[in-house]
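The protein record filed below.
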Amino acid sequence: MKKGTAAEENRRIKKLRRDKNKEFAGIAYGFIALFLAMIGYLAWFQTARSEAFINNPYNSRLDHFAERIVRGDITADDGTILASTKVAEDGTETRVYPRGRTYAHVVGYSDNGKTGLEASYNFELLRSHTFLLERVVSEIEGRKNEGDTLVTTLDDALQQTAYEALGSRKGAVVVLEPDTGKIRAMVSKPDFDPNTIVTDWDAILADDEEASVLLNRASQGLYPPGSTFKLVTALEYIREHPKKYKNYSYTCSGSITNDHYTLHCFGNSVHGEVDLEKSLAKSCNSSFANMGLSLNIKNFADTCEDLLFNRDLPIDFAGSGSRFSLTGESGESEVMATAIGQGKTLVSPLHMALIVCAIQNDGVLMRPYLAQRLENADGGRVEQYEPSAYGRLMTEKEAKILRRYMKNVVTDGTASALQSDSYVAAGKTGSAEFGNVKGRSHAWFVGYANAKGKHPIAIAVIVEDAGSGSTVGVPIAKSVFDTYFK
């Protein structure tokens, strides 16, 4: 063999070896990448998704927990028992709800499925963090351990007040702290007795109207927002005219006609010359319909999306998403109706309360939450849930303008009954027409109140088929504010 030929052969062999080494390296790196990805996924699942997976109602592992642990209590923030488990001498367990109907929807039930907090914190209520030695002894002796207690953010006095103020009427009341996100009260009617849900079940489901008692209207009910939506329309007008919104002027004659569509002010009231602030204070339909016709519909839709319309609310319990459907293809009559909270727009009371929370809290929405902490059966703290910000829904300046307008609704508008020496209130009333029968409307009020030394509270009230928000919604809000700031 020639010398040149041998050198070429050596180079060929070396090249083959390098190529094989690259192949082996590629395979090795691939396995390492897969291994690291698997480790990363397991770490993410363990920290972010494991409890959600375990808490899934289809997970049979929860049944195993229930065989070893007595379901824990649920309490109000002051320790008032809202749900507990009674154990008979023969070991039979019965879930009892001392406050009965008052907390029916927010606490829920744990038989015939689970709802409310019983569902959202099912896993936590079936864990036990009692003293380790005590748990070991109980396991050895075949006794169940006591489950952890869920301490909620709910204020028993506010819940009772809201429940009694709503009376026998259908509707909902939800109360939150804007600066923390704590839900302080959540009432829905008609209601049910969670203590007798099993025996009442067939009767409830036998009638569609009766079955609606299971719906938590505060978070799952969807209603036309009526004049409370004028807060959103006003915000959009301010955004489109940041330097000229104060110059807005309209002469109200009691109605407005455009494109063969006539829209009347409530009670055919004639408001005369109004600016933007007075339009809101007097809840002038004609002015807001006129305002709506001047808006950029795409920008209007974007503002509604900023305020969480057509999006999931940042909650960890059952709720319905609100709907805003105005587009560039919508006719002028639909634009006019939408601008005053009619048309096809639908919203939940909780969502309206969140918008008010953001307005009161300089534009920042805190995540609403119901669970304050978990304690073991001896009262030791297991886990604390802290307030956290969801995000900014509007600028600080926009929120400040809307707060001034909402205060004027109380001092010189449709919610004047909320004036008080104990607190400063602000808000917006609403009367939302529904169905095809003329003159029927849901009564709305959304707003907030604050005073020195207390967290501010925001509220949303809706009373179905009750007429005017100023005559029906405002007194309910006043009862809650008076109780909180007494």
